[in-house]
Amino acid sequence: MEKKTLVVKLGTSILTGGTRRIDRAHMVELVRQLAQLHREGHHVVVVTSGAIAAGRELLGHPALAPTMPNKQMLAAVGQSHLIQIWQRLFDIYQLHVGQMLLTRADLEDRERYLNARDTLNALLSHRIIPVINENDAVATTEIKVGDNDNLSARAAILADADLLILLTDQQGLFTADPRSNPDARLIEEVHEITDELRALAGDSVSGLGTGGMATKLQAADVATRSGIEVVIASGKTPELIGRLAHGERIGTRFTAQANPLESRKSWILAGPPPHGELVVDDGAARAVQSKGSSLLPKGISQVCGTFERGDVVRVLSSQGKELARGICRYNATDLQRIAGKHSDEIESCLGYGYGPVAIHRDDLVLLKGDTQ
Ligand SMILES: Nc1ncnc2c1ncn2[C@@H]1O[C@H](COP(=O)(O)OP(=O)(O)O)[C@@H](O)[C@H]1O
Ligand SMILES: N[C@@H](CCC(=O)OP(=O)(O)O)C(=O)O
């Protein structure tokens, strides 16, 4: 069976079961399902809400004004508690978790984005379960993603996920909020997120979650545009996670709009103008062009311009013809020092390393014909 990468977002509504406490009994059941998928060889990423709810529970539900610092204080208390609960539950299956607390600023800055992606990939390749939440304690309104639905869509892009599952307290997106409209019907499949659809998605009324269905639709929009399928479903459906991973139709499914690799490549071409140039030797030019290889420092003969790790650069042949564009994993100063060297010399030369390649093949777009 094909191995998939799944991002599963668990909202406060499902983690508390609508109560004032974290529903550990239900978390045990969700972890059992996640561990089963992991055992089958799939990559599993958890995006967890519930820090604020856990903080409230731990402090005995103090009467607090709903100010930002108070929420941040609750999240700071609750997050460490929450991650301990996750770790204890995954311990049952001898699995480790790795906590990643992110903000919007981390995901918009190319260098920090690459760092976060490298960390996530390192966790996954060591078969550790990444457990992600927003870094509420440091995030102010400007740098906050604001809700974990949107955060999970960005985490899914970071992980190159095949499927994003948004687990909540409803069976999916309905034609109206089922809490107030008993006649509301489940929408089973969405191919395009239109304004009419957005008008159906209401806010959270439970006082526990953030954003309701509106933020779930925003998340579905972001993820499906990046080629990731999204499902909104009820966390109470038996064996839900495994059944969805095996292709069963449950809840509301949003079909992917593009292939993830293609969408990253169009960002490279349409995104910010290149910051610098790498002139490569004939061997590297051939490897990149005909074999679809990554660009190694060894094949770089000249580094021009000032660029940071994560910036887009142009790749030029020794005759000055533009062959490709890609996201560079080293900044210009570092690359000048390692250009022409073997990848296993990077660490000793710089004192650190971000891996053996200057531009990974997934971050490289070949240009056909003259693009000078
Ligand atoms: N059209 C809709 N279909 C389903 N649920 C809706 C809709 N509009 C609003 N909602 C509300 O969204 C809530 C789920 O969002 P939220 O409370 O933020 O949960 P979570 O903590 O899982 O993110 C549901 O409990 C429901 O009341
Ligand atoms: N980061 C916050 C959750 C924010 C949020 O979006 O909550 P939810 O709508 O329940 O997914 C916390 O951990 O409490």
Measured as a percent range, the helix fraction is 25-40%
Structural class: alpha/beta
**Strand order across the largest sheet:** 3-4-2-1-5-7-8-6
* Number of DSSP strand runs: 13
Family: Belongs to the glutamate 5-kinase family.
Function: Catalyzes the transfer of a phosphate group to glutamate to form L-glutamate 5-phosphate.
Binding site for substrate: 49, 136, 148
Enzyme class: transferase
Structure overview:
The structure is a single chain. By secondary structure, this protein is an alpha/beta fold. It folds into 2 domains: 5-258, Acetylglutamate kinase-like (Carbamate kinase, 3-Layer(aba) Sandwich), CATH 3.40.1160; 264-366, PUA domain (Archaeosine Trna-guanine Transglycosylase, Chain: A, domain 4). 39% of the residues lie in helices and 18% in strands. It has helices at 12-16, 24-39, 51-58, 68-91, 104-108, 110-125, 148-158, 195-200, 212-225, 240-245, 260-270, 282-291, 332-338, 346-350; strands at 5-10, 43-48, 97-102, 129-134, 163-168, 189-190, 229-234, 252-254, 276-280, 300-305, 312-316, 322-327, 364-366. The protein has an 8-stranded mixed sheet, sandwiched between helices. A hairpin with a 5-residue loop joins β11 and β12 (322-327). The chain is globular and about 70 Å long. The two termini are 44 Å apart. The structure holds adenosine-5'-diphosphate and ligand VHF. Substrate binds at residues 49, 136, 148. InterPro entries: AceGlu_kinase-like_sf, Asp/Glu/Uridylate_kinase, G5K_ProB, Glu/AcGlu_kinase, Glu_5kinase, Glu_5kinase/COase_Synthase, Glutamate_5-kinase_CS, PUA. Its EC number is 2.7.2.11. Catalyzes the transfer of a phosphate group to glutamate to form L-glutamate 5-phosphate.
